[in-house]
């Protein structure tokens, strides 16, 4: 990677591009359940497919290998990035020939296994890119690592979800593109899921070639749901830019957490009354506003969270260090997602969302009231307090030796 650690445009563009690739994979994976539901999949099937996301919560297991094992001639990050990107491109290109038939026939287990592999590769790439970004921006502004991740992954997720769901839809493209242009109606959208998967595969392969050559190591219809998310994406792209210069990321995390809890109330009420409002003209404008606010707050929270992680990471083991911290965050999300999807079958269908939101809101308020002072204390700690030093190792070793001697005396 480039040796210059300043926040140059080329460094920022490089990290954002790598995060976009991650986001496209994650967005594509999040779109698959919507295609499955269209072809008759159940909530239980969605819960099964959700297990494909678990590598992001388990990446700590192999993150140390990515930090320690590498070929010096290629460099620490490039040694892993190139094979990971290459394998990802080949896997995506291979499944593009079968994915449509797997979805139509509800091959849930097979799809789960395939996307588990894709998530594994994406999680491994995330370890490499996180470590590279932290090292690259550590000397100038660590918050750029968080900002690059938020912008890149958000835009990539937009391409893999909203963009795909909207323009893959024949209904949307016939109404809003072909009809205004006086083009004949078609039974397909501007492109198919197969075409998009191949596009993502080619993007991975192109970036791989560029790294080798240029970089030296250092409740709504699915098309309407995608259309609604287009303006929402703009809000999530703006959010990380607001706090890109902050030196107090946990303060922003606390503020956004409170706002997120408050916003849950009108959002839950809106979902509950959706069946009565969906036929009215004001339904989608309100939906866009509520989701945009929700995603904006969530992105502030995520960016602040990652920004804090980036500010305290030890540069020489940054990949493993930040993976440890992010893994703990991802693990809670992954476990809860699977549990909620399975529990949805047990709750009263008419009130399942309201019950879940109410319970989570109460738990959130309890957690925040107990943790606020801890957040303030953690924010005040110097970054060096989080680093593993030789003095720390000597102190630990000395303590262990003293304990052994005391045990022997006893």
From TrEMBL:
Question: Which cell locations does it reside in?
Answer: Membrane
Q: Which GO MF terms does the UniProt record name?
A: acetyl-CoA transmembrane transporter activity
Domain of life from the UniProt record: Eukaryota
Membrane topology value: Multi-pass membrane protein
Among Pfam families, the record links this protein to: Acatn (PF13000)
Keyword Membrane set for record:
yes
Q: Which InterPro entries match?
A: AcetylCoA_trans_1-like, AmpG_permease/AT-1, MFS_trans_sf
Q: Keywords, A to Z? A: Membrane, Transmembrane, Transmembrane helix
Q: Which GO terms describe its biological process?
A: acetyl-CoA transmembrane transport
Question: Might you report a single GO cellular component term?
Answer: membrane
TM stretches of this protein: 12-39, 80-103, 109-137, 189-215, 227-246, 252-273, 280-301, 321-344, 351-370
* Protein name stated in the entry: Acetyl-coenzyme A transporter 1
Q: Which organism is it from?
A: Adineta steineri
Task: Cite the source lineage.
Answer: Eukaryota, Metazoa, Spiralia, Gnathifera, Rotifera
């Amino acid at each position: 990677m480039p040796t210059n650690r300043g926040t140059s445009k080329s460094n920022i563009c490089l990290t954002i591009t790598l995060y976009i690739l991650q986001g496209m994979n994650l967005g594509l994976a999040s779109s698959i359940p919507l295609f499955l539901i269209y072809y008759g999949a159940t909530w239980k099937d969605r819960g099964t497919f959700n297990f494909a996301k678990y590598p992001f919560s388990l990446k700590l297991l192999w993150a140390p290998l990515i930090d320690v094992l590498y070929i010096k001639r290629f460099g620490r990050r490039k040694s892993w990035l190139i094979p990971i990107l290459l394998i990802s491109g080949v896997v995506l290109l291979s499944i593009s020939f079968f994915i449509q038939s797997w979805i139509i026939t509800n091959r849930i287990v097979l799809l789960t296994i395939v996307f588990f592999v894709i998530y594994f590769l994406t999680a491994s790439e995330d370890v490499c890119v996180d470590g590279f970004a932290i090292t690259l921006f550590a000397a100038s502004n660590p918050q750029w690592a968080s900002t690059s991740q938020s912008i890149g992954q958000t835009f990539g997720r937009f391409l893999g979800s909203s963009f795909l769901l909207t323009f893959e839809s024949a209904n949307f493209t016939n109404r809003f593109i072909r009809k205004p242009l006086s083009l004949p109606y078609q039974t397909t959208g501007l492109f198919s899921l197969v075409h998009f998967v191949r596009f993502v595969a080619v993007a991975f392969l192109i970036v791989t070639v560029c790294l080798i050559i240029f970089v030296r190591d250092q409740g709504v219809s699915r098309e309407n749901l995608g259309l609604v998310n287009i303006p929402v994406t703009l809000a999530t792209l703006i959010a990380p830019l607001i706090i890109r210069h902050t030196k107090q990321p946990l303060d922003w995390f606390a503020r956004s957490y409170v706002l997120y809890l408050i916003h849950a109330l009108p959002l839950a009420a809106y979902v509950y009354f959706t069946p009565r409002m969906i036929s009215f003209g004001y339904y989608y404008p309100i939906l866009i506003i509520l989701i945009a606010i929700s995603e904006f707050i969530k992105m502030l929270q995520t960016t602040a969270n990652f920004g804090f992680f980036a500010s305290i990471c030890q540069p020489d083991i940054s990949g493993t260090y930040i993976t440890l911290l992010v893994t703990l965050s991802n693990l809670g999300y992954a476990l809860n997602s699977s549990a909620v999807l399975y529990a949805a079958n047990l709750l009263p269908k008419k009130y399942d969302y309201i019950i879940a939101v109410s319970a989570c809101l109460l738990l959130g308020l309890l957690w925040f009231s107990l943790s606020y002072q801890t957040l303030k204390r953690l924010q005040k700690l110097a970054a060096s307090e989080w680093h593993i030093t030789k003095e720390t190792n000597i102190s630990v070793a000395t303590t262990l030796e003293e304990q052994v001697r005391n045990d022997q005396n006893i």
